[in-house]
Amino acid sequence: MRPADHPTKRINVSTTRRIVPAALAVAAVVALSACDSDQVGAAAVVDGERFTVSELQDQVKESQQLEGFDVRAAGGVSGFQRELLTRHIQHEIFLRLAERENIDITQAQIDDAIERFESQSPDGNLGPALAQNGYTRESFRAGLTDQLIVQEYTSRTGADQAAVTQALVDLGEQLNIEVNPRYGSWGDQLAVTDDSGSISEPENSGSTPTPGQTPPPAAPPAQ
C-alpha cells in the first residue's frame, strides 16, 4: 500500500517520548451499541483486520499470570487494556512501514538482540524485567521487531525522531484505525487514550525509544 497524498499534520516531538500503556462496565453496553458492524466483537480494527475483544482479554490474562506483574501499577485492567491495544496497533503500523520500505527483520536479528539484552541483565535473566512490564516473550519479540524496524529505517533515510513519528502518524491515517469506544480512541499521540484524553501511563515502565511503546529496555544498537 502506497501512502496517499494528503496534508501533513505537525506532531509535537514530545509525543515520541511519552510512555504509553475500559470504560466502566455500565457504560460498555452503550459503547458497544455505538460501534459499526466491523467493530462489533472487535477491540480494534486496523485496515479491516479485527483484533477481537476475546484476543485482548486473553492477552490480559496471560500477562496477569506473569510472576511479578501488578496490573494495578499498569493503570488497572482498563489502563493495561489500552496499553495492549496501543502495542497491537503500533506493531501493525511498524509492519506496514517495513513493508513500504522493503525492510526485512529476521528471527535471527531478534534472537541476537535478546542475547545482547541477556548479557547485560543480572544473571542473564530478562524474565523479571519483562514480567514487571507485562511482557510475555512473544510480545517482547514483537516490540523488538518494531524497534529494529525503526533502527533500519533511520539508518537508511537519516530520519530524526520527529520524522519517524510523522511517518507513523501518516501510515496510521491510511490504515483507517478504529478502536471500540469501550476502550477509548486512537489519535495522533500514537496511543489509545481514554475518554478524558489521558494516555495510559504504567508506573513501573521505563523510557522508550519508539513512539508510544513501553518495552522494558531499548533495543541494543545493531551490530
Automatic annotation (TrEMBL):
Keyword Isomerase belongs to the record: yes
**What residue spans carry the Pro residues bias annotation?**
212-223
Biased-composition ranges for Polar residues?
Answer: 195-204
UniProt xrefs under Gene3D superfamilies: Porin chaperone SurA, peptide-binding domain (1.10.4030.10)
* Keywords annotated in UniProt: Isomerase
Q: InterPro entries given for it?
A: PrsA_foldase (IPR050245), Trigger_fact/SurA_dom_sf (IPR027304)
Instruction: Kindly list the GO molecular function terms attached to this UniProt entry.
Output: isomerase activity
Q: Is Isomerase tagged as a keyword?
A: yes
Q: Please give the SUPFAM superfamilies that the UniProt record associates with this protein.
A: Triger factor/SurA peptide-binding domain-like
Q: Where is this region: Disordered?
A: 185-223
Q: What is this protein called?
A: Peptidyl-prolyl cis-trans isomerase SurA
